[in-house]
Structures are given as structure tokens and as C-alpha cells.
Specification:
The chain is α+β, with helices and mostly antiparallel strands. It has three domains: 246 residues, no CATH class; 65 residues, no CATH class; 223 residues, 2-Layer Sandwich (Nucleotidyltransferase, domain 5). Helix content is 39%, strand content 17%. Strands 1-2-3-4-9-10-6-7 form an eight-stranded mixed beta sheet, sandwiched between helices. It has a five-stranded mixed beta sheet with strand order 14-13-12-15-18, sandwiched between helices. Strands 5-8 form a two-stranded antiparallel ribbon. Helix 3 crosses helix 17.
């Protein structure tokens, strides 16, 4: 902390404060942001308005979440609370607009306020906004024991349950008890998110400089269930990362990372990367670091080094190829690809048809909102797309139970006819997580429907199915079959297999935005968003089947490595 406080007290340019945004992800963006403010460079003029819509919808989602959590904050002490008087100050948008938000935050602290919403902290070069400051001590006035904990509201799960208490590092308190109750130890471990971490670390550093920092920081989310709770944890482990980021020199040249795709300076940087043929075009972020340390900075240099697969991929990238095919014998004989039967390759170029006459295959794709849970499970059996959906603001899991009944019904019918059954997904982590989530929270619950009651499976039933030969992941085979010059996601691989999506610009992130429109917009907009989501989901199901058939034919059209 001493080193961080030295940064706070160091000389700085008031016109260029350091915010959490400046120390997360691309550090070169900070250079460009300051250059843009000085009129030296200009941000891209976006013609892809879906990005603007996504940002706007995300902002609305943040504001809705913030308003919902603010409404859950306590308004008065409860019976038995040591604190006898609960005070709250809200820092308003007008305070920010008038440039007095920091002063208003300090004034609220000087009055010993227990809850300060939309707090603005600034000291030295650091400048950070947090959703909430919570006074942790039991006092009511201002004294040397007054301590404030910064709390942020997160749109993703901030903690996960652990089996052993020794693995836990969180304490938990209800949002309705913040400022009144003491967080209690619980079997939860914090999930790291760099943006969240740097925000609370910066806020804690400023509070320490002011002499009023708690030893803990807090994160409010709906981790584990639909109820918002505050997870508190020690601030100390987060400070080293902030210090390292602040001490790291700002890069004067760009390098490609994941967030480049949505950055306002994307074109400005990409031109430079293409002019240099920078290796980050193939190996983004830290993946290129070991090669740079060996003096390999360009794709031409990497291709000439004859370093095996990575050199082949460097050449393929320069030729505009999305992927190269690995040797057939390394992947095409996988029994899962052939309905559980053994298979051998006798020729270099298989000529199989994609469909297997002894197998019933169903393709599955799921759409989810990180806070709400799943809202759409789509299925395709080769001739018909069937969706199980819930486009309401709440979620009791019924659509998942209905999907499960349908899936198990198809499986049972296949087995009764002596046929093999396989349900295929593309990258199963999401489907696996949410099936287990709903089983954990609603397992055994019965739901009345027009076709009779449906029952949510138990965790044991879900785990048994996911571990069976009937649950299959095309992506696992794709990763063995292809070496990609970029992503091997379904949107990249399916065109190689001859499938083209019916809608441009719709992806997983856009699906979250569309769901929020389907739930929170006027009837016409909501209906359009829902139709778009179902069409997108159906495309994913059909694309998964197309990729599988293509793999069975030996991935024709791909250059082999």
C-alpha cells in the first residue's frame, strides 16, 4: 500500500486522470484517448450501428440493475441492530455534470453517512466512481474509527461455491443489511474479473489516502441464485495488480488483443499492425510474448523459422486462410463422430455421406443472459426446429424442464427402437453449466403444463446424462481436426462447411442485448427481438449439424498441414 500511496501523491496532469478503464485491457488505448482529446487522432466513425445499439442497451441494463439494487438497500435500522440511525446520501447526475461529485462524496463522509450511492473518489492521478460506499464501523458520528468499504454492482457472477471452507475467501451480507449488519463467513470464493478488481482496488487506495478505508471491498451480484447479495473480501490481494498496472509503461505501438474488435480506435491500430505484419494478428495478447522475447516480431519471420504448426499457421494467415486441416488419422476415427462405432481410414480422402442410418441425432443450442439465466433452448432433428423459451423478466426454470422432458423422450424412443441416440452441441461448457445450475436450484420441482406435469431433473440425473455417450460436443472434434489462424467458433467454422448464417451481426453478445429488448421494450420491438433470437438459435442448431456432416466427409476444401 505504501507504494500505491506514493503514486497517489506523485505529480500528475489534472487533465489526464487515471481511471479503472485505463488500467484494464489495452493500455495503448489510454495513449490514443489522450491523443484524441488533443485532436491528434480521430476515433473510428462506426458504420456498424449494432455496436452503438449494444452499448446503449448495455448502459440501460446497468442502470436498471443499479436502480433495482438501490431499491433493496435498507431505509432504517432493524430490530436488534447496533446502529440506531441509518443515513444515506445519493450523489446525483447533476453533481457529476456540475463537477462537484467528489466534493459531495467527501461532504457525505464528513457527516458520517452510512450509505453513499454513486460515490466519486479522486486523489492525485486516480479517479474512480463506485456504485456504493458502505460505512463498516458501528459509529454514527465522525471519529478515528470511521471506515468505508467500496462496493460495486456486477452483471456477472462474482463468486462461486466451494466444497471446503479452507478454499473460501468471502463473507456475505444481504443487500438489505448493508450498513447495518456484519458480513458472515460463507463457503464462497471470489471469481476474478479484472475490471471489477481494478475498480475496487483504486477506490480502496483513495480511501486509504484519505484515512478512511475498510480492510475489505464488496461486490453485489446474483451469484448462485436470483437474489442479490454482497460478497466481501480482503482488499489487500488486489492491490499488487493495480500497482503493477500503474507502473507499467504505456506502449507506444499497438498489439492486437480480444477487445480490439469493439474499440473505437480499431482501424487506426489495425493499419499499423498490417503494415508491420505483426505476429499479434495471429497470436493476440500474451500468446505472442514468448516469440517476441526470441526476436520474432512479424508473421514473415515466424513463417521462415520453421517452428512446426505455428509457422504453418503464420503462412496460412498471410494467405487469408481461416484454418488448416490436421492429418485425418488424428481425428476422423473418433468413434463419437460415427455413432459410437469403430472406424478406420483406408484412404487419404474419405467419401462418406454425413448421415448415419443407425443413429438418431439432435442438435442443441442454448441462449442465456448472465443475470437472468437461460431463456431459449433450441433443438433440430434434421427436419424440424423446436424451441423451449421463456421471454419473461423472471425465471422459474420451467422452460428447462420442458426441454429436458422432450430430450429424454427422444432418447427413450430411440433406444426402444434399438437405435443409438446422440445430442450434439458446439462448445458444451455453457449448456453444461446451465443444466447443472437449474438442477441444483430447481431439481425435483414439478411444473403443470397443458401436456401434463414436467419435472426438473436432479443434479445426479443431469451429471449422468452429460457424462454419457449420448451428449456430444462437435467443438472437441473440430479442435483436433483443424488448426485455426483465429477463432474456431461456430461462426468461423460453419462457412468452411458450406453453411451461411441468415442474419449478419448477431452473436452471443448481441443475443443478450436482444433478450433485454424482448423483455423491456414495447410490444412490436419485443416481438421482433424474439423472432431474431429464435432465427439465430435455429441457425446455430443447423450449423452444428452441417459442421458434423462435413467432418465425416474429411473436412473437404481445407488445405492440409
Amino acid at each position: 500500500m505504501t507504494t500505491l500511496l506514493s503514486i497517489v501523491s506523485a505529480p500528475h496532469d489534472p487533465a489526464q486522470p487515471i481511471t479503472p478503464h485505463d488500467v484494464v485491457g489495452c493500455r495503448h488505448r489510454t495513449v490514443l484517448t489522450h491523443a484524441a482529446a488533443a485532436g491528434i487522432v480521430a476515433p473510428d466513425r462506426r458504420t456498424d450501428y449494432s455496436i452503438h445499439v449494444e452499448r446503449y442497451t448495455h448502459r440501460l441494463s446497468v442502470l436498471r440493475r443499479q436502480a433495482q439494487i438501490f431499491s433493496l438497500l435498507p431505509s432504517k435500522p432493524r430490530r436488534g441492530d447496533v446502529v440506531r440511525r441509518l443515513t444515506r446520501v445519493d450523489i446525483s447526475n447533476q453533481d457529476y455534470a456540475e463537477g462537484v461529485s467528489v466534493e459531495r462524496t467527501l461532504e457525505a463522509m464528513a457527516e458520517g453517512t452510512r450509505l453513499i450511492t454513486n460515490a466519486h473518489l479522486a486523489e492525485g492521478p486516480l479517479d474512480v466512481r463506485v456504485d456504493l460506499l458502505v460505512r463498516e464501523d458501528q459509529g454514527s458520528g465522525v471519529d478515528e474509527h470511521m471506515r468505508y468499504m467500496p462496493v460495486i454492482f456486477s452483471g456477472h457472477a462474482v463468486a462461486k461455491k466451494v466444497a471446503k471452507r479452507s478454499q473460501a475467501n468471502c463473507r456475505v451480507v444481504d443487500v438489505s443489511a448493508l450498513g447495518l449488519g456484519t458480513p458472515l463467513p460463507a463457503p464462497w470464493r471470489r471469481k476474478n474479473n479484472s475490471g471489477d478488481t481494478q475498480t475496487v482496488a483504486m477506490a480502496h487506495t483513495i480511501l486509504s489516502a484519505w484515512g478512511f478505508a475498510s480492510t475489505e471491498v464488496g461486490f453485489v451480484s446474483a451469484a448462485g441464485d436470483a437474489a442479490y447479495r454482497c460478497f466481501t473480501t480482503s482488499a489487500q490481494p488486489m492491490l499488487a495488480g493495480l500497482y503493477a498496472a500503474l507502473k507499467e509503461p504505456l506502449p507506444i505501438r499497438p498489439t492486437r488483443i480480444k477487445e480490439c474488435a469493439t474499440c473505437d480506435f480499431h482501424n487506426h491500430c489495425r493499419i499499423q499492425l498490417l503494415q508491420r505484419n505483426d505476429i499479434s494478428l495471429l497470436l493476440p495478447g500474451a500468446k505472442s510474448t514468448p516469440l517476441r522475447e526470441r526476436g520474432i516480431e512479424t508473421l514473415e519471420k515466424l513463417a521462415s523459422e520453421k517452428m512446426g504448426e505455428v509457422s504453418h499457421l503464420s503462412e496460412a494467415w498471410m494467405r487469408g486462410e481461416a484454418a488448416l486441416r490436421r492429418p485425418l488419422k488424428r481425428w476422423v476415427t473418433d468413434p463419437q463422430l460415427w455413432g459410437g462405432r469403430a472406424f478406420t481410414v483406408d484412404t487419404l480422402t474419405p467419401t462418406f455421406s454425413g448421415e448415419l442410418d443407425w443413429v438418431d441425432e439432435v442438435d442443441v443450442d442454448m441462449e442465456a443472459h448472465p443475470e437472468r439465466g437461460t431463456f431459449l433452448w433450441g433443438t433440430f432433428d434434421g427436419s424440424r426446429y423446436i424451441a423451449f423459451s421463456d421471454f419473461s423478466a423472471g425465471d422459474d426454470g420451467q422452460h428447462v424442464a420442458e426441454f429436458w422432458r422432450w430430450l429424454m423422450g427422444r432418447k427413450t424412443a430411440s433406444e426402444e427402437r434399438g437405435r443409438h441416440f446422440q445430442a450434439w452441441v458446439y462448445a458444451a461448457q455453457g449448456e453444461n453449466y446451465w443444466l447443472r445450475y437449474y438442477a441444483d436450484h430447481y431439481g425435483g420441482r414439478s411444473y403443470p403444463t397443458a401436456q401434463g406435469d414436467v419435472v426438473m431433473p436432479t443434479r445426479a440425473e443431469v451429471d449422468e446424462f452429460l457424462a454419457s455417450e449420448s451428449w456430444c460436443d462437435v467443438f472437441e472434434i473440430v479442435k483436433r481436426a483443424l488448426a485455426g489462424t483465429g477463432s474456431l467458433g461456430l461462426k468461423t467454422v460453419s462457412p468452411l462447411a458450406g453453411f451461411h448464417f441468415s442474419q449478419e451481426g448477431v452473436n452471443g453478445r448481441a443475443a443478450v442485448t436482444l433478450f433485454e429488448q424482448a423483455v423491456g421494450s414495447a410490444a412490436g420491438v419485443a416481438a421482433t427481438a424474439r423472432r431474431t433470437l429464435e432465427r439465430y438459435n435455429a441457425d446455430d442448431c443447423v450449423a452444428t449439424r452441417q459442421v458434423r456432416y462435413w467432418l465425416r466427409r474429411g473436412a473437404p476444401g481445407m488445405r492440409s498441414m
